[in-house]
Amino acid sequence: MSKSSRRLGLAALGVLAFAGAAGAQIPGPSGLSVVARIAGPDGGWDYASFDAARGRIYVAHGTQVLSIDTRTGAVRPDFAAGARLHAVVPIPGSDLLLTTNSGDNTARILSAADGHTLASVPTAKDPDAAIYDPASGLVLVMGGDSGEITLVDPKAARATGAIVVGGALEYPALDGHGRLYVNREDKNDIAVIDLAGRKVVATYPMPGCLAPTGLALVPGGRLVSSCANGVAQITDAATGRTIASLKIGAGPDAVIHDEIRQLAYIPSGRAGTLAVIALSGPASNTVIDTVPTQLGARTGALDATTGRLYLPTAEYILPAPAGQRPAMKPGTFQVLVLDRR
What we know:
Elements: E1 17-18, E2 32-39, E3 48-51, E4 56-61, E5 64-69, E6 75-81, E7 85-91, E8 96-101, E9 106-111, E10 117-122, E11 127-133, E12 138-143, E13 148-153, E14 158-164, E15 169-174, E16 179-184, E17 189-194, E18 199-205, E19 212-218, E20 222-227, E21 231-236, E22 242-247, E23 256-258, E24 263-268, E25 273-278, E26 286-292, E27 301-303, E28 308-313, E29 316-317, E30 327-328, E31 334-340
Antiparallel strand pairs: 1-2, 2-31, 3-4, 4-5, 5-6, 7-8, 8-9, 9-10, 11-12, 12-13, 13-14, 15-16, 16-17, 17-18, 19-20, 20-21, 21-22, 23-24, 24-25, 25-26, 27-28, 28-31, 29-30
């Protein structure tokens, strides 16, 4: 996750509750609004992910993985232990999860049944975002500070190699044909990697995009990046050409692709909004809605079947002292649930 928005410690477990306290929202063109808030323990967080096989949302939440059963609403704030967690990756066709832990520079292999740690695999420094590659069965772990990708075999519980990229690596995207794309936050570009050759084969500069973090590859060969300066940059994956630059809220840290509804969602933490981008055709790249969320909501996960979004956040003590990040108000960590009423 972005160093610029990084790491916003225990409160009582909350349960699913409809969000009437914040006032009713009138849905915009997307139909989305905050319909519920799920409380959890205090502490920082990073990425959220959806486990389609088990119907769970996972939030990488400081030293614990928080899980939400989307079918029953049951919440487990201590599903699994970690060390400055960043990502939780379900491994398709298995009973395994993989987490990235920058506190001890490891990828941990977990049992999806009960969250206990099966193995701990050393990685490059600052393991952050990660993605499962169906073609190889490996998880590609981005080293945010090291500029190195660690290739982890989750079933064998070992690293099988590394790819030196350079730069501050953020979120990756796969094309399914042997290429990996990853945003480099400090260089304002996208590195293009040949996985078979384990080398960088191109870089795509993104003028007008400051500190890119979230990334998704969507139909039409388009790479959608979220930029810290409140821009969504859309890039041609084949050529690096800039297709569009769209105004969104400030402080985004994820791009969530909804393939079923042909949309991309970008939550912006400093603005407290969710940009909804229509992607119905290669030439259709339009912000169709700006949904009010909450300050701090900058990452999230999608239940593709229901179309519900889950965005972790908290309330803050504002204004912050000069040169410091705002402190979280105790007892306010929550996961926003967005749905179409």
